[in-house]
Amino acid sequence: STIQKQRQELQLLIAELKDRDKELDDMVAVHQRQLLAWEDDRQKILTLAERCSLLNNELNKRNEIIKSLTKRIKFLESQQNDSKATLENTQQKFKELSQKVTDQTVHRQALEEKNQSLHCSVLELSARAGQLQAREQELLTMLKLKDETIRETTDHITEFTAKFKKLASALRAAKAEGFTLNKEKQDLKLRVKELILETNKLKDDLCEKMNENNKQQEEIVHLRQENSSLRNELALTVEKAKRKDQLLQSAKAKQARTDTELSNLRQV
Protein backbone atom coordinates (compact mmCIF):
# COMPACT_ATOMS: atom_id res chain seq x y z
CA SER A 1 0.00 0.00 0.00
CA THR A 2 2.92 2.36 0.72
CA ILE A 3 4.40 1.68 -2.70
CA GLN A 4 0.96 2.21 -4.25
CA LYS A 5 0.61 5.55 -2.46
CA GLN A 6 4.11 6.55 -3.54
CA ARG A 7 3.28 5.57 -7.13
CA GLN A 8 0.12 7.66 -7.00
CA GLU A 9 2.10 10.59 -5.55
CA LEU A 10 4.72 10.11 -8.27
CA GLN A 11 2.01 10.09 -10.94
CA LEU A 12 0.52 13.25 -9.44
CA LEU A 13 3.96 14.88 -9.33
CA ILE A 14 4.64 13.83 -12.96
CA ALA A 15 1.28 15.26 -14.02
CA GLU A 16 2.04 18.44 -12.11
CA LEU A 17 5.49 18.57 -13.74
CA LYS A 18 3.88 18.21 -17.17
CA ASP A 19 1.48 21.01 -16.31
CA ARG A 20 4.41 23.10 -15.12
CA ASP A 21 6.34 22.33 -18.33
CA LYS A 22 3.30 23.35 -20.37
CA GLU A 23 2.96 26.55 -18.33
CA LEU A 24 6.68 27.24 -18.82
CA ASP A 25 6.37 26.69 -22.58
CA ASP A 26 3.40 29.05 -22.68
CA MET A 27 5.33 31.62 -20.62
CA VAL A 28 8.34 31.30 -22.94
CA ALA A 29 6.12 31.78 -26.00
CA VAL A 30 4.44 34.80 -24.41
CA HIS A 31 7.85 36.15 -23.43
CA GLN A 32 9.06 35.74 -27.02
CA ARG A 33 5.99 37.59 -28.32
CA GLN A 34 6.54 40.33 -25.77
CA LEU A 35 10.19 40.61 -26.81
CA LEU A 36 9.12 40.94 -30.45
CA ALA A 37 6.49 43.54 -29.49
CA TRP A 38 9.12 45.38 -27.40
CA GLU A 39 11.54 45.40 -30.37
CA ASP A 40 8.73 46.70 -32.62
CA ASP A 41 7.92 49.42 -30.09
CA ARG A 42 11.61 50.31 -29.85
CA GLN A 43 11.81 50.68 -33.66
CA LYS A 44 8.67 52.83 -33.60
CA ILE A 45 10.17 55.01 -30.86
CA LEU A 46 13.41 55.42 -32.86
CA THR A 47 11.39 56.34 -35.96
CA LEU A 48 9.32 58.83 -33.99
CA ALA A 49 12.46 60.34 -32.44
CA GLU A 50 13.99 60.77 -35.90
CA ARG A 51 10.75 62.33 -37.18
CA CYS A 52 10.63 64.63 -34.15
CA SER A 53 14.21 65.74 -34.87
CA LEU A 54 13.32 66.46 -38.50
CA LEU A 55 10.24 68.40 -37.42
CA ASN A 56 12.33 70.41 -34.94
CA ASN A 57 14.79 71.29 -37.71
CA GLU A 58 11.92 72.30 -40.00
CA LEU A 59 10.44 74.36 -37.17
CA ASN A 60 13.76 76.17 -36.66
CA LYS A 61 13.94 76.93 -40.41
CA ARG A 62 10.38 78.25 -40.38
CA ASN A 63 11.20 80.42 -37.36
CA GLU A 64 14.17 81.89 -39.24
CA ILE A 65 11.90 82.61 -42.24
CA ILE A 66 9.35 84.27 -39.94
CA LYS A 67 12.10 86.43 -38.38
CA SER A 68 13.33 87.55 -41.81
CA LEU A 69 9.77 88.34 -42.91
CA THR A 70 9.20 90.33 -39.70
CA LYS A 71 12.37 92.36 -40.37
CA ARG A 72 11.24 93.00 -43.95
CA ILE A 73 7.79 94.13 -42.75
CA LYS A 74 9.42 96.56 -40.30
CA PHE A 75 11.65 97.89 -43.10
CA LEU A 76 8.63 98.36 -45.40
CA GLU A 77 6.70 100.10 -42.61
CA SER A 78 9.62 102.49 -42.09
CA GLN A 79 9.70 103.15 -45.86
CA GLN A 80 5.95 103.75 -45.79
CA ASN A 81 6.34 106.24 -42.91
CA ASP A 82 9.11 108.03 -44.85
CA SER A 83 6.90 108.17 -47.93
CA LYS A 84 4.04 109.58 -45.89
CA ALA A 85 6.34 112.26 -44.43
CA THR A 86 7.62 113.12 -47.92
CA LEU A 87 4.05 113.27 -49.21
CA GLU A 88 3.03 115.61 -46.38
CA ASN A 89 6.01 117.87 -47.07
CA THR A 90 5.13 117.91 -50.78
CA GLN A 91 1.50 118.76 -50.01
CA GLN A 92 2.66 121.58 -47.74
CA LYS A 93 4.95 122.94 -50.50
CA PHE A 94 2.09 122.64 -52.99
CA LYS A 95 -0.20 124.61 -50.67
CA GLU A 96 2.46 127.30 -50.29
CA LEU A 97 2.94 127.51 -54.06
CA SER A 98 -0.84 127.63 -54.56
CA GLN A 99 -1.02 130.50 -52.10
CA LYS A 100 1.79 132.28 -53.96
CA VAL A 101 0.01 131.76 -57.29
CA THR A 102 -3.21 133.10 -55.77
CA ASP A 103 -1.41 136.19 -54.47
CA GLN A 104 0.25 136.76 -57.84
CA THR A 105 -3.11 136.36 -59.58
CA VAL A 106 -4.68 138.97 -57.31
CA HIS A 107 -1.72 141.30 -57.96
CA ARG A 108 -2.02 140.70 -61.71
CA GLN A 109 -5.73 141.52 -61.62
CA ALA A 110 -4.99 144.73 -59.74
CA LEU A 111 -2.37 145.66 -62.34
CA GLU A 112 -4.82 144.86 -65.16
CA GLU A 113 -7.45 147.08 -63.56
CA LYS A 114 -4.91 149.84 -63.20
CA ASN A 115 -3.79 149.33 -66.79
CA GLN A 116 -7.43 149.47 -67.91
CA SER A 117 -7.97 152.69 -66.03
CA LEU A 118 -4.81 154.13 -67.60
CA HIS A 119 -6.00 153.01 -71.01
CA CYS A 120 -9.33 154.76 -70.41
CA SER A 121 -7.42 157.83 -69.36
CA VAL A 122 -5.40 157.65 -72.60
CA LEU A 123 -8.61 157.38 -74.61
CA GLU A 124 -10.10 160.32 -72.80
CA LEU A 125 -6.94 162.31 -73.38
CA SER A 126 -6.96 161.39 -77.07
CA ALA A 127 -10.58 162.51 -77.34
CA ARG A 128 -9.80 165.73 -75.62
CA ALA A 129 -6.78 166.17 -77.95
CA GLY A 130 -9.12 165.77 -80.94
CA GLN A 131 -11.49 168.32 -79.50
CA LEU A 132 -8.62 170.65 -78.79
CA GLN A 133 -7.16 170.53 -82.30
CA ALA A 134 -9.31 173.57 -83.26
CA ARG A 135 -7.66 175.54 -80.54
CA GLU A 136 -4.19 174.23 -81.35
CA GLN A 137 -2.66 177.65 -81.73
CA GLU A 138 -4.15 178.99 -78.55
CA LEU A 139 -3.45 175.95 -76.39
CA LEU A 140 -0.06 174.94 -77.83
CA THR A 141 1.64 175.35 -74.51
CA MET A 142 -1.09 173.38 -72.77
CA LEU A 143 -0.87 170.68 -75.50
CA LYS A 144 2.85 170.34 -74.97
CA LEU A 145 2.17 169.81 -71.28
CA LYS A 146 -0.42 167.23 -72.18
CA ASP A 147 2.04 165.50 -74.52
CA GLU A 148 4.52 165.26 -71.67
CA THR A 149 1.78 163.80 -69.49
CA ILE A 150 0.93 161.31 -72.21
CA ARG A 151 4.58 160.33 -72.54
CA GLU A 152 4.83 159.81 -68.81
CA THR A 153 1.62 157.76 -68.90
CA THR A 154 2.98 155.76 -71.82
CA ASP A 155 6.18 155.12 -69.85
CA HIS A 156 4.07 153.97 -66.92
CA ILE A 157 2.06 151.73 -69.21
CA THR A 158 5.25 150.27 -70.69
CA GLU A 159 6.65 149.70 -67.22
CA PHE A 160 3.43 148.06 -66.06
CA THR A 161 3.35 145.93 -69.21
CA ALA A 162 6.90 144.70 -68.53
CA LYS A 163 5.95 143.92 -64.94
CA PHE A 164 2.83 142.14 -66.17
CA LYS A 165 4.94 139.99 -68.54
CA LYS A 166 7.31 139.11 -65.69
CA LEU A 167 4.35 138.15 -63.49
CA ALA A 168 2.86 136.08 -66.33
CA SER A 169 6.17 134.19 -66.79
CA ALA A 170 6.39 133.67 -63.01
CA LEU A 171 2.79 132.39 -63.05
CA ARG A 172 3.59 129.95 -65.85
CA ALA A 173 6.66 128.72 -63.95
CA ALA A 174 4.55 128.31 -60.80
CA LYS A 175 1.92 126.37 -62.77
CA ALA A 176 4.63 124.13 -64.25
CA GLU A 177 6.09 123.54 -60.81
CA GLY A 178 2.58 122.81 -59.47
CA PHE A 179 2.03 120.29 -62.28
CA THR A 180 5.35 118.64 -61.44
CA LEU A 181 4.42 118.50 -57.76
CA ASN A 182 1.03 116.99 -58.64
CA LYS A 183 2.75 114.35 -60.74
CA GLU A 184 5.20 113.59 -57.91
CA LYS A 185 2.23 113.44 -55.52
CA GLN A 186 0.45 110.92 -57.75
CA ASP A 187 3.65 108.85 -58.05
CA LEU A 188 4.06 108.89 -54.27
CA LYS A 189 0.42 107.85 -53.81
CA LEU A 190 0.91 104.93 -56.23
CA ARG A 191 4.13 103.94 -54.42
CA VAL A 192 2.35 104.10 -51.05
CA LYS A 193 -0.47 101.90 -52.42
CA GLU A 194 2.07 99.41 -53.76
CA LEU A 195 3.86 99.36 -50.40
CA ILE A 196 0.54 98.87 -48.59
CA LEU A 197 -0.40 95.98 -50.91
CA GLU A 198 3.03 94.39 -50.46
CA THR A 199 2.76 94.84 -46.68
CA ASN A 200 -0.68 93.21 -46.64
CA LYS A 201 0.64 90.35 -48.76
CA LEU A 202 3.58 89.86 -46.40
CA LYS A 203 1.20 89.94 -43.42
CA ASP A 204 -0.97 87.27 -45.08
CA ASP A 205 2.15 85.16 -45.72
CA LEU A 206 3.19 85.64 -42.10
CA CYS A 207 -0.26 84.59 -40.85
CA GLU A 208 -0.12 81.50 -43.10
CA LYS A 209 3.36 80.61 -41.83
CA MET A 210 2.20 81.13 -38.23
CA ASN A 211 -0.81 78.86 -38.79
CA GLU A 212 1.42 76.22 -40.37
CA ASN A 213 3.86 76.61 -37.48
CA ASN A 214 1.02 76.18 -34.97
CA LYS A 215 -0.13 73.02 -36.78
CA GLN A 216 3.40 71.64 -36.69
CA GLN A 217 3.71 72.49 -32.99
CA GLU A 218 0.41 70.70 -32.35
CA GLU A 219 1.69 67.69 -34.28
CA ILE A 220 4.95 67.77 -32.28
CA VAL A 221 2.97 67.92 -29.02
CA HIS A 222 0.85 64.99 -30.23
CA LEU A 223 3.98 63.05 -31.17
CA ARG A 224 5.53 63.82 -27.79
CA GLN A 225 2.39 62.62 -26.06
CA GLU A 226 2.40 59.47 -28.20
CA ASN A 227 6.11 59.01 -27.41
CA SER A 228 5.38 59.42 -23.70
CA SER A 229 2.55 56.90 -23.88
CA LEU A 230 4.80 54.47 -25.77
CA ARG A 231 7.50 54.94 -23.16
CA ASN A 232 4.95 54.25 -20.41
CA GLU A 233 3.78 51.15 -22.29
CA LEU A 234 7.41 50.09 -22.71
CA ALA A 235 8.01 50.58 -18.98
CA LEU A 236 4.91 48.50 -18.22
CA THR A 237 6.08 45.84 -20.68
CA VAL A 238 9.52 45.77 -19.06
CA GLU A 239 7.87 45.57 -15.65
CA LYS A 240 5.70 42.66 -16.85
CA ALA A 241 8.79 40.97 -18.31
CA LYS A 242 10.58 41.38 -14.97
CA ARG A 243 7.59 39.91 -13.16
CA LYS A 244 7.46 37.00 -15.61
CA ASP A 245 11.21 36.49 -15.12
CA GLN A 246 10.59 36.40 -11.37
CA LEU A 247 7.74 33.90 -11.88
CA LEU A 248 10.02 31.87 -14.16
CA GLN A 249 12.77 31.91 -11.52
CA SER A 250 10.28 30.85 -8.85
CA ALA A 251 8.96 28.12 -11.18
CA LYS A 252 12.52 26.96 -11.82
CA ALA A 253 13.20 26.94 -8.08
CA LYS A 254 9.96 25.03 -7.53
CA GLN A 255 10.91 22.62 -10.31
CA ALA A 256 14.37 22.20 -8.70
CA ARG A 257 12.71 21.39 -5.39
CA THR A 258 10.35 19.01 -7.16
CA ASP A 259 13.29 17.36 -8.92
CA THR A 260 15.04 17.05 -5.57
CA GLU A 261 11.98 15.50 -3.98
CA LEU A 262 11.56 13.20 -7.00
CA SER A 263 15.20 12.19 -6.74
CA ASN A 264 14.72 11.47 -3.05
CA LEU A 265 11.62 9.44 -3.81
CA ARG A 266 13.50 7.50 -6.50
CA GLN A 267 16.28 6.77 -4.03
CA VAL A 268 13.65 5.60 -1.52
Could you provide a short overview of the structure?
The protein has 268 residues and is mainly α.
- Tell me, briefly, the overall form: rod-shaped
Order of helices and strands: HH
Main β sheet profile: none
User: In which range does the helix fraction lie?
Assistant: over 70%
How much of the sequence lies in strands comes to under 5%
The averaged pLDDT comes out at 81
Report how far the terminal alpha carbons are from each other.
15 Å
Structural class: mainly alpha
Q: What low-confidence regions span 5 or more consecutive residues with pLDDT below 50?
A: none
What is the tally of helical segments?
2
Organism: Pterocles burchelli
Protein name: CCD62 protein
Keywords: Coiled coil
Written overview of the protein:
This protein is mainly alpha-helical and 268 residues long. It has one domain. It is 96% helix and 0% strand. The protein contains two helices and no strands. The protein has helices at residues 2-131, 140-267. Helix 1 (2-131) runs antiparallel to helix 2. The radius of gyration is 56 Å and the shape is rod-shaped. The relative contact order is 0.13.
Key phrases:
268 residues; mainly alpha; rod-shaped; 2 helices
What is the topology?
Elements: H1 2-131, H2 140-267
Helix pairs in contact: 1-2
